[in-house]
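I wish you would study the pair of lines that follows with an eye to the fold:

===
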Amino acid sequence: PDLAGKVDQIFQFDINGVGSWHVDLTVGEGSVSTGPHDNPDCTITCSEAAFEQILDEPGSAMVLMTKGELTVSNLTAALSLQKIF
């Protein structure tokens, strides 16, 4: 499937105590690379536990944001991830 056509964004994930990686959904099926990206459209920062919770329950992201356990640099871009989950 053409994930890039649905999202067309680059996401950087900074997981506290674990590391960083970025997901490029601007071309074809997208790609995942370790380390930060030079110019991500959206940076998402959280703990490992919060990230696992989001993977298990995507709807929990808003609750985690209100608790300060998840930060998102571009909420509009982050919401576009719903198109692929």
User: Anything to note?
Assistant: The mean pLDDT is 92. Residues 3-83 form a domain with the Nonspecific Lipid-transfer Protein; Chain A fold (CATH 3.30.1050.10). Residues 48-56 form the longest helix (9 residues). The chain has one domain: 3-83.
